[in-house]
Amino acid sequence: MTMTDASFFSADKGRASAWGAVLSMSLSVTMLIAAEFMPVSLLTPMAQGLGATEGATGQAISVSGLFALASSLLITTVAGGFNRKWVMIGLTALMLLSLVMVAMAPNFAVLMVARALLGICIGGFWALAAAVMMRLVPEPDLPRALSIMYGGQAMAAAFAAPLGSYLGEVLGWREVFWALTPVVAVNLIWHLIALPSLPARGRQNLGALIALLRRPYFRRALIAAMLTWGAAFTMFTYLRPFLEQVTKVGPETLSALLLALGMAGFIGTWTAGRFVSGQVAPLMKLPALVMGAATLGLIALGSAPLAVAGLLAIWGAMNTALSVIFMTWMSQNVDDAPEAAGSLLVAAIQASILLGAVIGGLLLDRFSITATFAGSVVLAALAAALIGNGQRLLKPNH
């Protein structure tokens, strides 16, 4: 074997190792989303098993979002100079601990602590994920790598709730969480094997976040992200009452529509991974435009189940492409501070998810489900107007 041949095989092995690490990150995403949203389909039996009200149990489930918000802002400071490989491993271990605590929870207080730990894991993982991906693969391959990672999100969104509901009926809610633990344990081992050493690139602190917020183009993108995700979750959080009250579907049709929406997410990640390339700033208004138009279509055609199914598929595909587009923009325009940018972007998204749910709930209680969806359309329109042609979201001299 010549030296050239050896270099070729070494490079090929390196590429295979990098994609193995990407796949391990994708499995982490799948399990994080499953762990975060699986309890939604198990709310009633969990409340009964813990001797708590459904309302209180629902608050325990949502507490993970609050801790995710705090964790996303603090992770780069707390992680400091630690090797990012071991930070990701530590976060995965924390997810495993949280699942075990939920499965064994003797009371409501333990459930609260377990969900808080999961929130720390969620915020920390998402804040660092894009920066880690930027170090695993070359820049031209980044959209594809991100689409693979977010494919895990689409998989969990499609299957976690219906699978959790079914297994909860057959086995019991605690057994559902026990069933997740061996998969997370395998993921932990996979991280140990597949992730390369990723030394910290200088210590991060809150000053780095403040410095980044002083950049006008980044502030504009951050507000655009909040409006876009806020629009998405104002609609998505209250999708079930819309389908029940307006489309008037039964339980089986409801499950089929939600599954179709989740499956469409695979199309969105696949498409984004293959067609998102070059400077993506002009594409950043596309999710707001398409998802806003789909939501407007639901308002107009909500009583027609076939039209609703088609519109939900369009919405679901663009919803997963949304993350790939914004994270690719970040890698291109904040490449000098990816961890700080990731922290702020994830915090903004978490805040907008909570805010979107609050706004949607107020509109629903005071007016109607149609008003909630109209609020989503307004937020999407504001996002698209703010983004414009994307030029004001570009890094100067980029």
TrEMBL record:
- What region holds the Major facilitator superfamily (MFS) profile domain? 1-392
Subcellular location(s) per record:
Cell membrane
Q: How does it sit in the membrane?
A: Multi-pass membrane protein
- Give the stretches traversing the membrane: 21-40, 60-79, 86-106, 112-133, 145-164, 176-196, 217-236, 256-276, 288-306, 312-330, 342-363, 369-388
Q: Which UniProt keywords apply?
A: Cell membrane, Membrane, Transmembrane, Transmembrane helix
- What CDD domains has UniProt attached to this entry? MFS_NepI_like
Q: What is this protein called?
A: MFS transporter
| Source organism of the structure | Paracoccus pacificus
